[in-house]
Amino acid sequence: MEDLFGLEASDASDDAGASQGRPANDAAARAARAARDAQRSPLAVRMRPRSLDEVVGQQHLLRRGSPVRLLAAGATDGPTGPSSVILWGPPGTGKTTLAHVIARGPGRKFVELSAITAGVKDVRRVMDEALTARDLHRVTTVLFLDEIHRFTKAQQDALLPGVENRWVVLVAATTENPSFSVVSPLLSRSLLLTLQPLTEDDIRGLLERAVTDPRGLGGAVALSKDAVDHLVRLAGGDARRALTALEAAAAVALDEAAQPSETPEDDGARDRDAGASPAPVTVEVRHAEKALDVHAVRYDRQGDMHYDVISAFIKSIRGSDVDAALHYLAKMIEAGEDPRFIGRRLIISAAEDIGMADPTALQTAVAAAQAVQLIGMPEGRIVLAEAVVHLATAPKSNAAYMGINAAIADVRAGLGTGVPAHLRDSHYAGAGRLGHGAGYVYSHDAPHSVAPQQYPPDDLVGKDYYVPTGNGAEREVAARLERLRSIVRGP
Q1: What is the DSSP letter of 280?
Q2: Which of 57, 139, 349, 465 is 20 to 30 A from 444, alpha carbon to alpha carbon?
């Protein structure tokens, strides 16, 4: 009987036999046990690239002649050779992977420290051993330091001699901006490389490779298209999360396929196919949902659902149903919709459907759209939710929207016979002879800074484009507008 990764149940007995009847220095036995142990490792560990050609994404760092390629090739000596690097990027984008690939270069020794558990004493010990390895054995030590932003200033200072004198090649990883979390002397002695979140295509390719690669699932399963889309969405650009989710979903699918059949016909078919190679088990969305306890959101970012959900979202805000609006917001967020797109739609909604009934709604929407770009997700969901609540509960008026539409319609119909002479530009020589500006009344010279005067073209005098409602702040605007029009237009 085979387990998830094709390991036979007799592996344990083989190990026992090796310890009893085989010599301890049996290289073949040790290699077999090492292979089995590696196969039992998490899928994300087994699928870790062994060379830069297997690295998914980050192509901007992997071009020919780049520091990463030079480091991976072993080019650490000489005045122009790259030395230490600091890798800055979101989780699951390949920081640890690049460190391991660099360590595979010729004449390398790999040492890994975690800033969570290591102290100054550990750092100094590594530096001493690295100096010895370099001078006596001509071996370069690659020190991978994860979560370097958790190191104190004293701990980071302990790295300086080894980095400056190249006793070690420091590969430090951080998810926080090194400009604020890494001391300046160490930052100036290292190359700062920024990793980008993996794209959906990157994650999709990684999943497909893990399914077929012998180091991964070895063809034991196949992925349905919907399952791939679901896993890609759950990954959120994190390769480690994607592979962990795949491994869990595959375990559910294989366990389900291993259950005894319920009908004699199925048993007979299984007996007939006993000698044939088992067909791969298809991982469906339901397997991923069962393994991860996350329901698959039916949503396509370029198809009907994209337009249907955003339409329902805007109409819920317009209809003042804050709960429905938050539901559709959550649906888009969970489906991986671009939060910047949501922010832009909120700006439009504030101007179109709320307008002067609550002028602060537009300010909130613009601030939310800008904030999302500054802080990103998942925290951006809080800002978007605040804007949605403001807009959905605000008084509504489309008077400004309808007003500009009506004005545009008249312009397109050819109305508006020109600018009245007293409003025309009179600053250039000869304008006075044309009568430009003659009779113009400077508004601030009139009581309340409002002067009786004709502003529209002759054929649009008395035409009302803006018709305020009695909702919210626009109620006061309506009363003020009536007084303004009575003064400007006169009796």
Answers
A1: P
A2: 465
